[in-house]
Amino acid sequence: MAKNAGKPRKLKTVMIGCGGRAQAHMAAMLSSKAIDLVAVCDLDEAKLKAAGEKFGVKKLYNNMEEAIGTEKPEFVDICTPPTIRTSIVEPAIKAGAPHILIEKPIALTPSESRRLVELGKDRLIAVNTQYQWMPHWQRFWEILAKKELGDILYIRASTKADILEQGPHTLDLAMKAARISGLPDPEWVIAGAAGVAYHGAIPVPGDVTAIAGLGDARLFINHGGTAPEVPGEKVFWYHIQVDVVGTKGRLWVTLNQGWTLWYKGKFTKGKTDWGKNDGQSQAGLYIELRDRIHAGTWQEFPTRVEIAAKNSELMMATYLSALNNTKVDLPAKLPDSLVKRVGKLAK
Ligand SMILES: NC(=O)c1ccc[n+]([C@@H]2O[C@H](COP(=O)([O-])OP(=O)(O)OC[C@H]3O[C@@H](n4cnc5c(N)ncnc54)[C@H](O)[C@@H]3O)[C@@H](O)[C@H]2O)c1
């Protein structure tokens, strides 16, 4: 019998961008055994060569269109900074990219997010909010889907980093917990914000506190220096926590200081470990990508851009609510002009 008989075929992939985060992407491509990384591409010759050597990839390109046109991959992983999104996704599609993964945050302005949704209508544009595939979250999705926590009343999502930096992860988890529990998308949001952080030249509120309505349930969002600490956590970036409170139970999950689950009258605890869980979740994402692209069920990919765009809209609606001192009803066609106004937020 052939050596690979029965094993699913690997997904033929080209990697665009060989910077910091791409190292975790390429390591997980190998560990997942789901990806056939045929070529890598970066404008920076030193990073390109280093990635080729480290991950054993022979075909190196410094022009994305040439890489896609020559290799004709099934899937293109684009790992570039947030200032480079539609400006790289559009030419990647023109060059023949059939399905694409982009990093978070998907967009710095509301219109860019809407454009990505249009581009993702007839192909998969998946978003790299990989935490969903952490082994503990995979178990929690099943518990939530079975309504083991009863009706969900509150979800809290927080981190000390600004909302555009880590909101894509916390809101991805919070809104997946909401959706899987049968709650509707956010219907309105009220927010306060202070201070300014920058992504490139784009201003983002430094600190956001918000409450959103999901039917009868409420989502509480805290992003920035005033967000609650994770007990025992020493690393600024790891103060990430999501709390799901239901009528019959409760789930509290931190990035790196464990989780606690109250359900079926029992109280259990487990470990979380960013160093290990990140690689596991990134590999899990690639396995599901391979399986769904090959099965033709990519429309159901859990982090497709339509879903991420709703979270992006919620994040930017918090800016508008804070700036106008008013409740914002959702969905809303938010104007790009609100981003410039963020630069004037009081410290
Ligand atoms: N999901 C996560 O947990 C996670 C963690 C860290 C960073 N990120 C995100 O990953 C993204 C990338 O961050 P990073 O730290 O790797 O950035 P980086 O600046 O280290 O790397 C980006 C790379 O893209 C290359 N590049 C830019 N334009 C290109 C083009 N046209 N063709 C080929 N290569 C091009 C650059 O030369 C650079 O090497 C950001 O959006 C960041 O927010 C996500």
Which keywords apply here?
single chain, 347 residues, 2 domains, 6-stranded parallel sheet, 15 strands
Quick recap of the structure?
This protein is of the alpha/beta class and 347 residues long.
Largest sheet: spatial strand order: 14-13-12-11-7-10-9-8-15
Tell me the overall shape: globular
Q: Number of helical segments? A: 10
Rg of Cα set: 20 Å
Q: Count structural domains.
A: 2
The overall strand count is 15
Helix content: 25-40%
**In CATH terms, what is the architecture of the largest domain?**
2-Layer Sandwich
- Low-pLDDT regions: none
CATH hierarchy, class of the largest domain: Alpha Beta
Estimated share of beta-strand residues: 25-35%
| Head-to-tail CA distance between termini | 68 Å
The small molecules bound here are:
nicotinamide-adenine-dinucleotide
- The CATH superfamily of the largest domain appears as Dihydrodipicolinate Reductase, domain 2
Find the CATH topology of the largest domain: Dihydrodipicolinate Reductase, domain 2
Q: Note the run of SSEs as H and E.
A: EHEHEHEHEHEHEHEEEEEEEHHEH
Characterize the largest beta sheet: strand count, sense, and whether it forms a barrel.
9 strands, mixed
Mean pLDDT: 96
Q: Structural class of the helix and strand makeup?
A: alpha/beta
